[in-house]
Specification:
- By secondary structure, the protein is mainly alpha-helical.
- It folds into 2 domains: about 80 residues; about 80 residues, no CATH class.
- Helices cover about 55% and strands about 10% of the residues.
- It contains 8 helices and 3 strands.
- It has a 3-stranded parallel sheet with strand order 1-2-3, covered by helices on one side.
- Helix 1 crosses helix 4.
- The two termini are about 30 Å apart.
- About 25% of the residues are buried.
Length: about 190
């Protein structure tokens, strides 16, 4: 998937460059590593739900980045492709359907699921809102996931829902579990 996204960004960069829209990025756009770096940036922007309009309001980096983002989105649409942000958006829309899709509105366990973006947090919040019971565990030290999870669990508070939230510490696990966790082996 990363290779596909990088190729789409390379194409978008070429198209934006032809229209002299790269501005700040023009001197480095043809350098090795530019397309993968922009692909990672665009992925983060889309998962954070930052729009081209918001980017245009920024200093000299904003307008060319907005042009790249818009062209990337146009390329996705033209090729009928979906990146991670689009897949999460599609899944989020499906969760909201009535009647609920299969596996929605069931007791849900999130076992050390890392949350790295607003889109992921909103997706989890929607699942929690529809679940009669939900439990979320987080590995000790994963503060980013903890912050996003706390937001997700506060977003939708339903009286009938029972929510458990906990942080699991490897130090508190039994020695065999702790050792297996550290080495990546199973018991």
């Amino acid at each position: 998937m990363r290779l596909t996204v990088t190729a789409i960004v390379a194409r978008a960069t070429h198209i934006v460059a032809r229209s002299n829209g790269l501005g700040y990025f023009a001197p480095i756009a043809d350098r090795h590593g530019f397309a993968p770096a922009v692909a990672r940036t665009i992925a983060e922007l889309r998962l954070s739900r930052i729009t081209a309009k918001q980017l245009r309001a920024l200093d000299s980096v904003g307008p060319p980045l907005a042009a790249l983002l818009e062209q990337y989105e146009q390329e996705l649409t033209a090729a009928k492709l979906a990146d991670r942000a689009a897949m999460i958006a599609i899944a989020s829309e499906a969760i909201a359907l009535n009647p609920a899709p299969r596996y929605v509105e069931l007791p849900t366990l999130f076992l050390d699921v890392p949350i790295r973006s607003c889109a992921e947090s909103d997706f989890i919040a929607q699942l929690v809102a529809r679940a009669p019971n939900a439990m979320f565990t987080i590995a000790a030290g994963d503060t980013r996931t903890e912050n996003y999870a706390r937001i997700a669990f506060k977003t939708f508070g339903q009286p009938q829902s029972t929510i458990a939230f906990g942080i699991i510490s490897r130090q508190n696990a039994e020695p065999s579990v702790r050792d297996n966790y550290a080495t990546g082996t199973s018991a």
